[in-house]
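[DERIVE STRUCTURE TOKENS]
===
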Amino acid sequence: GRVQLLPPQNVTLLSKDFAMILTWAPREGYPPNVTYTVRYESQDRLDKWMKVPHCKNIPRSFCNLTCALSSFYVKVRARVKVVWGQSQSPWVKSQFKDYYSDVELAPPVLTVNVRENSIHVSASFPLPACVENLTWKYDLNLWEAGSEDKKKYEGYFRKDTVTINTSALRGNYCFSARALYESINLKHSEFSQPVCVLLNHKG
């Protein structure tokens, strides 16, 4: 007959590194090669559970929902069940979250190009394709290595390059940036690991 499958546990909707991800943990004693299926519902259409095609009968215990969501401004929750042959467990639901106000940002990756009398800094974030057009920004800090005195360049759009005149700078200078997102309140990531360059080094 059918196996009685217990539902997955620790079902959590996480917002991490610009993405909305459902995670769960298998239970001990699952047969080998069980798979999982995920659906989600949004608060403006309760009890209408939407399919997530790329998270049907998957072997892994997470599902990236970001680009499946119909709106980034409405709270959603997801549910997951385990499937094995003809058997399936009951669904387990996550809590509600909304991308717009709950999204957690990862620090940007800096690209630093040193030219003769200037330096060009740009920040890139590993964004899911569907959120490319939201207005992501970044703040950039510049300081001389060892100094506490930071020059701040604030509110640049994600694809902008910051150009800094370096003709008066001598020595080892460091850059660090954080991602920003204006939702209900201003959110920002941690600052990135510093990138340091030697400027106008007469050697």
Q: What stands out?
A: The two ends are 80 Å apart (CA to CA). Residues 99-102 form the longest helix (4 residues). The chain has a mean pLDDT of 92.
